[in-house]
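Retro notes (design track)

What went well: tokenization of the new backbones is finally stable.
What didn't: we kept losing track of which sequence belonged to which structure.
Fix going forward: every design gets posted as structure first, then sequence, in one message. First example under the new rule, 135 residues:
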């Protein structure tokens, strides 16, 4: 099983969001692990539920800060968040209906999306927040 860990290069230079991202990485790692160990549908469903709740919380915290400081990239950023939230909800729904594990493809998709979003989209706000004393 490939290890999925937060790395220093993922840092967006905003402490609160780095810890949110670490938590998301941990949840995806837990999902990976539960799949590899063929845990029950209840266990996997529970992690998915937590992942959805935490993803929503994290995205709304980012968007709140962008809104209050007038970040120009907010609309585009929010679109990415909404798209991902919809995808995760879809996976959870499918899981609930089928009682099946989350497939490798789904896991790869979730992990790749998160890493790409942090590296390419989130990192764009680092300078904006840092110059406004958000570190
Ligand atoms: Fe984001």
């Amino acid at each position: 099983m490939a290890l999925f860990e937060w790395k220093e290069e993922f840092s967006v230079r905003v402490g609160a969001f780095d810890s949110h991202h670490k938590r998301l990485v941990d949840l995806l790692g837990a999902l990976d692990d539960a799949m590899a160990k063929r845990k029950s549908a209840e266990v996997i469903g529970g992690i998915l539920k937590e992942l959805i709740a935490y993803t929503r919380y994290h995205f709304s915290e980012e968007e709140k800060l962008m809104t209050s400081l007038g970040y120009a990239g907010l609309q585009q950023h929010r679109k990415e968040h909404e798209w991902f939230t919809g995808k995760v909800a879809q996976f959870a729904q499918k899981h609930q209906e089928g009682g099946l594990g989350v497939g490798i493809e789904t896991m790869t998709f979730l992990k790749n999306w998160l890493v790409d979003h942090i590296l390419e989209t989130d990192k764009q706000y680092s300078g904006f927040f840092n110059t406004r004393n958000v570190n």
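Added context from the reviewer: Residues 105 and 111 are 10 Å apart (CA to CA).
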